[in-house]
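User: I'm putting together notes for a lab meeting next week and I want to include a structural view of one of the chains we've been expressing. I don't have a solved structure, so I'd like a prediction I can at least talk through. The sequence is below, exactly as it appears in our construct file.
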Amino acid sequence: MIDFTLRKASDDDLFLSYDIRKNAMFKYISESKGWDEEKEMKDHIEDFNTEVMQIIEVESKPVGVFETVTEDGCIHVHGIYILDEFQNYKIGSGVMNKIIETAENEKRSILLQVLKVNNRAKEFYISLGFEVLSQNENYFKMIYKPVE
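Assistant: Thanks for the context. Below is the predicted structure for the 148-residue chain, given as C-alpha cells.
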C-alpha cells in the first residue's frame, strides 16, 4: 500500500475535485447514463461541500477525493474517487478501512451506492464486507453493518 494522507477540502478544491471525479467516473457515467459535461459540472458545483469532502494526497499531490457524512445514525459515503494512475495501490482500501473502523467503534452502518456498470467497485465493496441492500435502474445501494 502506498502512503496517503487526507486533508479537509477548501473552496480552492472545486475544480480539482471535479477533475478527479471526472477522471475516475467518466467511463462509468458515460456507459450508464451518458456524460453531459455541462450537467456534470453544474451538479458538481451544486453538490460541492467542503464540510463533507476530503482530498486524498500522496506526497502532497492530490490523487483522490473522499466524501462522507454521518446522518440518521449511519455513515453515508457519497463518493470515493482515485485518479487512474493511483488505482491498485490500495489507497481506496486504506480510506475505506478507516471508515469501517469508525463504523465498528461507533456501531454505525455505512451506506453507499455504486453504478451498476462499475462491477469493479461493487466487487471492491463486497470484499470489504458490504452487501447489496437494494437497486434501481442505474445503482446498487450497498450497506456495511458493524459486527454486533
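A couple of points you could mention at the meeting. The helical segments are 14-32, 37-47, 91-106, 119-127. The two ends are 29 Å apart (CA to CA).

User: Perfect, that's what I needed.
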